[in-house]
Amino acid sequence: MININRVTLVGRLTKDIELKKTNSNASVCNFTVAIDRRFQSQQANGQNADFINCIAWRQSADFLAQYAGKGTIVAVEGRIQTRSYEGQNGRVYVTEVVADNVQIISNRSGQNAGTNNYAPNSFAQNNSYGSNNQTFTPSVDPGFESMDDDFSNTPSLDISSDDLPFY
After folding, report:
1. I need a surface site. Which of 33, 122, 143, 154 has the fewest CB within 10 A?
2. 3-state secondary structure of 91
3. 48 within domain boundaries
4. What is the value of pTM for the model shown?
């Protein structure tokens, strides 16, 4: 039997990232992503978004703490994890998304974030952690014609409606 536990979220951070360190000096941050609901519910008491608790470790946590803040749109890929601990009022159960890959979609001012992302398990990491308004320009082979071709040099096809399998 195949088991799959993958989550992809895109939403806004509800508050600034607070970076913490474990006893072994590993970076960790807990954050909440607000995701607007597609359909508005009359029974939601005015709440038209879901607030998903997430946790990021090591370089992902460092990246978020440095470049993301309240209102930043982020994409989070990870897995759902459940855990429990003994709290003051008894057993506390927690469900959260453990982030494997975090990308900044746009910063607080709404500008596109470009290529800023951190994927610790990715083979093709992009480590350009500069400003949040970087843009990506692919390199193009000089012999390659522009993709903006209007197809004016393309021969036209003479097709009648009788040639189509449907009409």
Report:
1. 143
2. strand
3. yes
4. 0.62
With CA atoms as reference, report the closest residue to 30 among 47, 46, 14. Answer: 14
Q: Could you tell me if 99 and 78 are in contact, meaning their C-beta atoms sit under 8 angstroms apart? A: yes
Domain containing 70 equals: 7-152
Q: Which residues touch 30 (CB under 8 Å, ≥6 apart)?
A: 18, 53, 54, 55, 96
Q: For residue 19, what is the domain's CATH number?
A: 2.40.50.140
Cα 134 from Cα 114, distance rounded (Å):
5
Question: Each residue of 101-113: b (16+ CB within 10 Å) or e?
Answer: bbbbebbeeeebb
Per the CB < 8 A criterion, the answer to whether 67 and 104 are in contact is: yes
> For residue 62, what is the enclosing H or E element?
helix 58-67
- The DSSP bridge pattern shows strands 73-87 and 49-57 to be unpaired
